[in-house]
Specification:
Blueprint (H helix, E strand, L loop, with lengths): L10 H19 L2 H15 L2 H22 L1
Helix pairs in contact: 1-2, 2-3
């Protein structure tokens, strides 16, 4: 394997991973709004389909919370 064959780390992917990590922490803490923001930032960097799913879970939970507050 030559140095040309070695793949350089993707800086966008590394930044996306940090946003995912922060999103998971906020999600566990119950801060859905900030988790959603972090997932959106990660999606902008990585386009990973699983993140879209996690983002929608946050959206659904936030919608349910808003509905409960209105009641």
């Amino acid at each position: 394997v030559t140095s040309a064959d070695a793949k350089e780390p993707d800086p966008d992917r590394a930044r996306a991973n940090k946003h995912i990590e922060f999103a998971e922490l906020h999600l566990k803490a119950g801060d859905l709004a900030e988790a959603l923001v972090q997932y959106e930032k990660a999606i902008a960097l990585s386009k990973e389909p699983l993140l879209l799913y996690k983002k929608e879970i946050c959206n659904e939970k936030l919608s349910r919370e808003a509905e409960a507050i209105r009641l």
